[in-house]
Amino acid sequence: MDHFDYRDGELFAEDIPLSRIAKEVGTPFYCYSTATLERHYQVFADAVAPLGGDVCYAVKANSNIAVIATLARLGAGADVVSGGELRRVLAAGVSADKIVFSGVGKTPEELAKALEAGVKQINVESEPEFLSLSDVAVAHGLEARVAVRVNPDVDAGTHEKITTGKSENKFGIDLALARDVYARAAELPGIKLIGVALHIGSQLTDLEPYRIAYSRAVDFVHLLRSDGHNIRHLDLGGGLGITYDQENAPSPEAYGKMVSEVIGDLDISVTFEPGRMISGNAGVLVTKIIFVKDGVGRQFCIIDGAMNDLIRPTLYDAYHAIIPVKEPDAGVEKMEMDIVGPICESGDYFAKNRAMPPVKDGDLLAVRTVGAYAAVMGSMYNSRALAPEILVNGAQYSVVRRRVEIDDMLKFEILPEWMDTER
Ligand code: LLP
After folding, report:
1. Catalytic positions, please?
2. Whose CA is closest to atom 16 on ligand 1?
3. Which CATH number fits domain 4-32+280-410: 3.40.190.10, 2.60.40.3930, 2.40.30.170, 2.40.37.10?
4. Is it the case that residue 281 has pLDDT exceeding 80?
5. What is the CATH number of domain 34-277?
6. Tens of pLDDT along 61-113?
7. In Å, how far are 46, 182, 210, 249 from 254, measured between CA atoms?
8. Which helix (H) or strand (E) holds 235?
9. Which residues have C-beta atoms less than 6 Å from ligand 1?
């Protein structure tokens, strides 16, 4: 459920017509709904409440500080994967004791920043990382609270580029090796081992891979405890899928129930790292049609949004619903078209052979379900501006990231001294 609906023939974000924002801010722009973000967070938090679970929103999905702050106000913690994300969540007001630092390649500088901030937990993914973290902790006179990220070798059944829990993936430590690694890590100075973490992939629409992976993690906790380790925390990652098209995504309630069954009486505190499930449906990308162009046997709808604003269709063959901002008449005949951006690549498309109601130059379209993994994966390819991000809250809206223009970009570029060209 989201808060983007037609009212009186116009698409609204909560109580604001998207055409009004388009007029005032220009296109393309991302538009997020506070009520949708809050609702999704709450549904997930309620579903895992019986487990006493901590919800650490995976900010990689949408790391705008206004989005993070919206969730933090409801009690969300944060899962971060870089020094940059750490800066963002601290700036958004997430308290350090609710921050988990994940990621396969954390630098000593990033580890030091996390330790100085006093994060709740660092998820370590390899033996070299243990050694590095131990060095950093000792050098700073601090102790790191650490969970080992294990790789349970489970096929999440998602797109190959977003599956992470198979042994051929770079993530985590193989369960077969993890026991010994844990034992060695326990001897390292500056390291306090507190738990086990895993994350098997993203956009999972089936609970079975979770059940298998989580059962393996529970067995591993028993094994570690039998070795004398005091394992108090289990981080179950994120990955719960959402509906982009016809997917039948499991409900957070069903997920919570499955987790309770698998955890049983393990007596352990549980952390979750949902990203997409919270922010995915809370955003649309509003774009304007530049031209409708007739090709041979097909029509191209050329819009001012492009793969630099939303790379998911071309990168993962992802489906995103696209609807006109002005509501089409009921029963109107649809025709197939390719919806493409202006970038000089054939991969620059949002949809192929998509049945659309009649559209014309200047019309506004809304690309749905872009609250996760859209703006954060944006680039300035073809020297295109970074589209602004708008947050709506009831009848108010605010520009929460302004458009980043070519002039901003040129400020970062420098002609070398040996070129005396005046700019
Ligand atoms: N925790 C860890 C350690 C992760 O690597 C991820 C996502 C999450 C949590 C959150 O997963 P979520 O609940 O959002 O599925 N760019 C891709 C998705 C990449 C996900 C990477 N890791 C896409 O657009 O589909």
Report:
1. 344
2. 373
3. 2.40.37.10
4. yes
5. 3.20.20.10
6. 999 999 999 999 999 999 999 999 999 999 999 999 999 999 999 999 999 99
7. 12, 32, 12, 10
8. strand 233-235
9. 58, 60-61, 79, 102, 162, 164, 199, 202-203, 237-240, 273-277, 312, 316, 372-373
In sequence order, the 6+-apart residues with CB closer than 8 A to the CB of 215 are 262
Range(s) for CATH 2.40.37.10 in the chain?
Answer: 4-32+280-410
Which residue puts its alpha carbon closest to atom 9 of ligand 1? 238
In the chain, residues under CATH classification 3.20.20.10 are 34-277
Backbone angles phi and psi of 308, in degrees to 5? -75, -20
The answer on pLDDT for 423 being more than 60 is no
Tell me the C-alpha distance between 305 and 287, whole Å.
5
Model confidence pLDDT, tens digit, residues 168-191? 778 889 999 999 999 999 999 999
* Cα 374 to averaged position of ligand 1 atoms, centre (Å): 12
How far is the centre of ligand 1, averaged over its atoms, from the C-alpha of 201 (Å)?
A: 7
The single residue listed with the structure tokens 């352990």 is 268
